[in-house]
Specification:
By secondary structure, the chain is mostly helical. 58% of the residues lie in helices and 6% in strands. The strands form 2 sheets. The protein has a 3-stranded antiparallel β-sheet. A two-stranded antiparallel ribbon has the order 4-5. Strand 1 and strand 2 form a beta hairpin. Helix 2 crosses helix 4, helix 4 runs antiparallel to helix 5 and helix 7 packs antiparallel against helix 9. The chain starts with 5 loop residues before the first helix and ends with a helix.
Amino acid sequence: MGTLSPLFTLVRSFFLAFLPEEQKCSQNTIRSYRKSLELLFDFVKEKNSVALNEITFEMMDRSTISEFLSYLETERNCSISTRNHRLHCIRAFFKYAAQEDITVIAHLEEIQKVKRAKQPETIVEHMSEDAVQAILEQPDTCTEKGKRDTFLLLFLYKTGARVQELVDIRLCDIQLGKYPKVTIHGKGAKTRSIPLRDDVVQHLKKYLTLFHQEQNLFSDQYLFYVTRNQIRKRMTEDNVRKLVAKYGVQARKICKEVPENVHPHLFRHSWAMILYQNGVDLTLISQWLGHSNLETTLIYAHADTELKRKALEKAVPVDSPLKVHLNAERYNISDEELLKRLCGLK
């Protein structure tokens, strides 16, 4: 049995000490970092025909990292967002390694020269209120499972939670009383409190009566669970995705506004758009969604502006002088305008 190489000695301390203890990263974050480095090491190992423990920092130069990122996009069909996230994880490891070993600094400088890929601007995908309502009406509420599914869909929608956050909620995260709320455990071990609306509270109480009769709100039992061999287990993200997709297919038969592919994140985007269109400040929406960067929340401002422009274009005759103005206005939205909107100046 050999000893760990200098590289993997640092990898070990990165995952076993630095991320969980110093950075207080969640298991989901650590899992993402681990996957990124695992993919990189597999790529480097195959490229250099070496054993895993024989990989060195020298083998992971700027050119190799660029090749790896191209491989992710072309061979593994990763999105630009995923590609950029993998690069972020690699940089984070090299930064840590350079802090622990000054000989890695030169390699870190090389890695930092690798550019993030520019993501194309897209209109954020979301559903209309009619589409959401059609989906919420699909579960058979004459059955216990149907009542559970109705509550899950409503809770997913009106909390704006990510699917991972949804299935991680425990009974002790819920507070009822004068101001009902739920504590969401988000990315990077960050928590946020989300107020619960009256309709959500009503469904929640019925759900608790049916599915958590023997527990109180101090229990660490998961809010949503599945039962296998009479043992309760946390509902998985995949369980939620399949459930949402099934009701999406059913709802589309009666409401054409329902998208072809309904997934949990659509509910999050849809709720954010409802908040924005009803005048909620972008800063508050950012806090509600658990965004660490306000720029992420600006997609809803861009989306709403584009939707309004398209609606106006449909209403304005093709030969109208206003059509020219609309098309020109599309390209004249400055950062200053967005900044004013963000700060509540407009």
